[in-house]
Amino acid sequence: MPIQVQKPKKPRIIIPGTHYHRVRKTVQMICFCIFVTLPLFDIMRIDLPRQRFYFFGAELWISEFSIVFLTLMFLWILIAAMAMIYGRFWCGYLCPQMIFSETANNLEKAIIRFVNKRLPNAGPQLRRVIAAILFGLVLLPASIFVTFVFVSYFVQPIDLFHRLLSLDIRTAGGIVGASVTLVTFLDFALLRQRFCTAICPYGYLQNMLKDKHTLLVHFHDPNEECIKCNKCVRACPMGIDIRKSSHQLECTHCAECIDACSGILGKLGTHTVIQYAWGDSGSNTQAPANWFRRIGLRDGKRVAVLALLLVYATGLSIAISVRQPVLLRIMPDRITLYSVAADGKVHNRFRMLASNRGRIPASISLSVAGLKDATVEEIEEHRTLEPGETIQQHFDVVAPASSLHGGINRMRILADVTPGKTGQQFS
Ligand code: SF4
Ligand code: SF4
């Protein structure tokens, strides 16, 4: 009987480092999915042609000033709070420009490797040209896709898709789409991370908002453990040396240098000399501290900013939750004060303005309360509102003269709106 001998398992070698890199790539993948999902599923879009603002299931009209204002203030304070507390966390982990730039770098390197492997006998010049052509061929559809998603933040994706299929480069929308595709292509072909330091205004803004407690990537080597291997410089996607300063404009706090340093010094049995720290004090993020200090709430200014953020978030959620899908206004028509018909009934004319801001048809029904035998008589038949439709309709409140007394007769017009509020009152 044959005896099966199991091969001894190789001990797993754990290479120190690569910790932040893995976290960053996972976060970037999630961000990419969010970037694509938000406009394509109407979760977030500033729809310019329709003048609508889609925000987490709500279809807001640009004219809804309070909600648009609260949303913009909330986003602005969120951006400012993030820059103040976590420095350039956005750039290193969340920014689509950075995600696509790094992907373009990796793609280019992979294509160069592929060409070198497949065409070992071709001259270096020819291999470079072939690699550049292949890279361009992959980058073009990728740029069209990225542009499609980006423009979907401003135009309905289905409209955009039809324009794309018809290769529209004659209308204003088509020219804008083609220009953005060209800019995206050139950005990822030529600029990539240079965009962050030369063009992006958010990078400059972050540098203005940071202070002595802002999260930094910090070189701290009191025991002179740095072996000057320059691995941190080679790993840096921005091509800088973090040992010179923690405040270089190019540094996006991506932590690739931390992984590189912990990888090399970890093998030598010591710890990295580059780390995330709260400000120049070098206060390590791993150091024991109260939970609120560990998440970056290190002074009153930060607590105040977060409290303000909470106020705007609460205001925004209340404004969205009490919002009615149908906006209804009823005003007396002052051109004719009142009129008396041949049958002796008194007619009072009103004007109704209704906008359906929802996504399904809405119906409106009017009635009168507080005035005996009064009814609503509509002049124009138009009570069902399609999504996005606005109507202006005149109607009469009619009452027999016998139920009126001299002077002012008070009454209430009741509006039942489906879907929406029943019994909205207009006095
Ligand atoms: S990787 Fe670490 S040890 Fe090597 S040069 Fe950079 S800081 Fe020094
Ligand atoms: S210095 Fe370090 S944290 Fe800054 S960009 Fe380079 S690798 Fe990223």
Concise structural overview:
The chain is an alpha+beta fold. The protein is built from 13 helices and 15 strands. The chain has 3 domains: 148 residues, no CATH class; 113 residues, no CATH class; 101 residues, Immunoglobulin-like (Sandwich), CATH 2.60.40.10.
Chain-wise SSE layout:
Blueprint: H1 19-40, E1 44-47, E2 52-55, E3 58-61, H2 65-86, H3 89-94, H4 96-118, H5 124-151, H6 157-165, H7 172-191, H8 194-198, H9 201-209, E4 215-219, H10 231-235, H11 256-267, E5 274-278, E6 283-284, H12 291-294, H13 300-321, E7 326-332, E8 339-340, E9 345-356, E10 362-369, E11 375-378, E12 384-385, E13 390-400, E14 412-418, E15 424-426
Antiparallel strand pairs: 1-2, 2-3, 4-5, 5-6, 7-9, 8-9, 9-13, 10-12, 10-14, 11-13, 14-15
Helix pairs in contact: 2-13, 4-5, 5-7
Report on the structure:
44% of the residues lie in helices and 19% in strands. It is built from 13 helices and 15 strands. The strands form four sheets. Strands 7, 8, 9, 11 and 13 form a five-stranded antiparallel β-sheet that branches. Strands 12-10-14-15 form a four-stranded antiparallel β-sheet, with no helix packed on it. One iron/sulfur cluster (SF4) binds at residues 217, 235-236, 238, 240, 242, 251-257.
List the keywords.
427 residues, alpha+beta, Immunoglobulin-like, 4-stranded antiparallel β-sheet, 13 helices, 15 strands, elongated, binds iron/sulfur cluster
Residue runs with pLDDT of under 50 for 5 or more positions = 8-16
Q: What is the averaged pLDDT score?
A: 83
- Give the number of helices: 13
- Please trace the helix and strand order, writing H or E for each element: HEEEHHHHHHHHEHHEEHHEEEEEEEEE
Q: How large is the radius of gyration?
A: 32 Å
Spatial shape: elongated
Distance between the termini: 99 Å
Instruction: Compute the number of structural domains.
Output: 3
* Ligands present: iron/sulfur cluster
Percent of residues in beta strands: 15-25%
User: What structural class is derived from the secondary structure elements?
Assistant: alpha+beta
Number of strands: 15
Roughly how much helix do the residues carry, as a percent range?
Answer: 40-55%
Biggest sheet statistics = 5 strands, antiparallel
